[in-house]
Amino acid sequence: MHLSRPSFQTPFPDDETIRKAGHADGLAGLPAGSSYEPGPFERSILAAGESRISEVYVQTAEKLARFEGKTSNLANAYSSNQYRLKEALFRYKSRKDVLGRSAVIPVSHVTHWIIIILMAIGEFPLNVVVFRMFGEPELMTYVMSMTLSLTLPIIGMFLGLQVRTLVPPKIASGITIVLAPLTVLGALTALSFIRNMYVMLHAAHKLGGAADKMVYAMFAINLLIFVGAYMVSFFAHDQDAELDALHGAVLRLDKNRSRLREKLSLSISRTNAVIRAGRGSSERILSEVISKISLYRQANMASRGGAVSPPSFSKVLESPTLKKWWPEFVLPEAAESETAFSPQEDSHRVKFERRRTA
User: Fold this and answer.
1) Do you find a cis peptide bond into 11, omega within 30 degrees of 0?
2) Which residue, among 289, 282, 303, 311, has the nearest Cα to 39 in the 3D structure?
3) How many Cα atoms sit within 13 Å of 261 on the Cβ side?
4) 150-203 tens-digit pLDDT
């Protein structure tokens, strides 16, 4: 982001005017040979330059007002997330040391949710077909189908979580081993039956004596969805409830850390661009001031006839406004990864540091 160069009310004198002024002041002995303060003409150039730099400072402050608040808020949120992530990592490692193992989660949480959603979507049209074969009203068909397609996967998911984390591992594995083949076998039989009945009858009112079998078929298919959700949820969590909760917390905080860091990095870049642009404009003005004062001093000394230059001519020219310029923001360091985390390392709240430019 670039600052537009404003229109200043106090222009710098041209080089010819500066030479004439330096020559005249040199003949008049201004500034005095023992003076540590610049002469009137030199002060006027310094004042004009400082006025220009002050105007750039005001412009930069107005631009920063739109960015700095957002950057500070993001930095505070990022720092808080860093603190909570380090605490979660410490507790997670401590729990791993107690158990002597890492979290065992065969199915990722993302895959787990995708399968649950696909089950719910697939359950809906299947229930619609079955309820239509029973001759249910259209509205009731959709209501019951929607209810089943939502509740069965959700209940199965929570049951799988509870069995995985609360039931002893051997018993939980036994339940899963027994349920899986029986449910799949029953569901395959039901699907075959429904397919044959649908091909033969094509309408719900023709079911007749096959209604009881249809009830069984519908039950078996719903059981498949239920146990499928149960199985996915079962394998998407660790057997230890505390380790599983800490693992999930670390993943969430790390994901949130990445999101906040990306936003903070962008906001810091924009803020620093404004700071650098304003500083660059001010430094160019100061450079122009130094150039013109050097021209004045050369003309002044040329008219003094070899006299010793006043102490004020040895003074380094600086801008008070530039000295108080804003430092740049620096992106805080990221929290340690799980593998690199060490409980002996500092786990204090990460502060939002700012680096002064050289």
Assistant:
1) no
2) 311
3) 14
4) 777 887 777 777 777 777 777 776 776 666 666 666 666 666 666 556 555 554
Q: Are 319 and 53 in contact (CB under 8 A)?
A: yes
- Is there a contact between 103 and 238 (Cβ–Cβ < 8 Å)? yes
3-state secondary structure the chain: CCCCCCCCCCCCCCHHHHHHHHHHHHHHCCCCCCCCCCCHHHHHHHHHHHHHHHHHHHHHHHHHHCCHHHHHHHHHHHHHHHHHHHHHHHHHHHHHHHHCCCCCCCCCHHHHHHHHHHHHHHHHHHHHHHHHHCCCCHHHHHHHHHHHHHHHHHHHHHHHHHHHHHCCHHHHHHHHHHHHHHHHHHHHHHHHHHHHHHHHHCCHHHCHHHHHHHHHHHHHHHHHHHHHHHHHHHHCCCCCHHHHHHHHHHHHHHHHHHHHHHHHHHHHHHHHHHHHHHHHHHHHHHHHHHHHHHHHHHHHHHCCCCCCCCHHHHCCCCCHHHHCCCCEECCCCCCCCCCCCCCCCCCCCCCCCEECCC
Stated pTM of the model: 0.58
Distance CA 227, CA 233 (A): 10
